[in-house]
Amino acid sequence: MSKVFVDVGISLDGFIAGPNGGANNPLGDEGIKIHSWMFKQKSFLSHLKLEGGETNNIDNDIIENTFNRIGANIMGKNMFIEGEANWPEESPFHCPVYVLTHQKRKPWERKGDTTFYFTDEDIHTVLKKAKTDAGNKDVRISGGVDVIQQYLNAGLVDEINLHISSIILGKGVRLFKDIDKDNFSLEIQEVINSQEVTHIFYKINKLEHL
Amino acid sequence: MSKVFVDVGISLDGFIAGPNGGANNPLGDEGIKIHSWMFKQKSFLSHLKLEGGETNNIDNDIIENTFNRIGANIMGKNMFIEGEANWPEESPFHCPVYVLTHQKRKPWERKGDTTFYFTDEDIHTVLKKAKTDAGNKDVRISGGVDVIQQYLNAGLVDEINLHISSIILGKGVRLFKDIDKDNFSLEIQEVINSQEVTHIFYKINKLEHL
Prior knowledge:
Chain A is α/β, with parallel strands linked by helices. The first copy, chain A, has helices at 36-39, 42-47, 58-69, 77-84, 123-134, 145-153; strands at residues 4-10, 15-17, 70-76, 96-100, 108-110, 114-119, 138-143, 159-165, 173-174, 184-193, 197-206. The longest helix of chain A has 12 residues, at 58-69. Chains A and B meet through strand 10 and strand 11 of A and strand 10 and strand 11 of B.
């Protein structure tokens, strides 16, 4: 059965991006440090049509497995704006991407089977469409943090995978700022560590009062 | 050689205690949830002279190993006030404890070889005394968060051990709020996971510009 999952890199102090992010400052000030373990893996770079990168390590495998399970993405407007200015012509998704925005815009098809759909429908409806598109694959709630929070708070996420880097960022965009924490509990499924990052895979259990 | 270390349980969103902590509300609102994995281990309960608890699991071993390595503690006034009202007559330290406070008070000896020393000397001087007391054992910077931050920011800590519980607390006392993050880097030494908590042991490397 198709899963809905969140998969994000965070700093040890809980930020998924630095402050002042935008089209000209993707990931915000110093935000790239959070993801430095990822940016040097071949599995990540190849999706951005960049050469090189490391292979034969667990970080590379984790990224590859994550890409392979995704059948559709849902993201917020700010994440899209940041990406639109920085992704290569062949966007790194290779499947449908739903962008939650009030802006009216026709679907935007990119090389490599990525199509962006712009929608202001409610998050349940959008998820239903994404699940249909994904088929046997999974739906990733890509970000940013507002969209992740909306889906978590609505009880619509099955798994959250955190990649905790050994970095203290000090300020930025906090992942767990506005979570309805009493709606669910987290259950550790797997922990994988490597040199620079600790990967923790959580299953999300809805609490019984819901 | 004797080490200086921090060893704290934190929630997944980075809190070491809930809000509104004090003598009548140790660990703050809901703060006990962060440490629920610890409060059910025999190695922890026995230090508080309480019966029962689980054995034969990695969490229990980690707590026991931590207690055994400590030759002296340094803590802040608020942590002491909270503990003074709640520790058993035989305080759970069994070694010298330096309390950083401007309050003048004679050393307070407790059953079981714990002596509390109250001092307003600078943190370097206090650490020197604690190291002498600890001998071949290690010095724990026990908390609260202000004292941990002071010692981290001064570059005086060798290791930080985080026990990351699978709990989102929402609000409380944040561990990494006022860290001079550019003074040091963190290097993963070991990661141990169990059912409810992920233990990450970091070595602290001072950065070269210091």
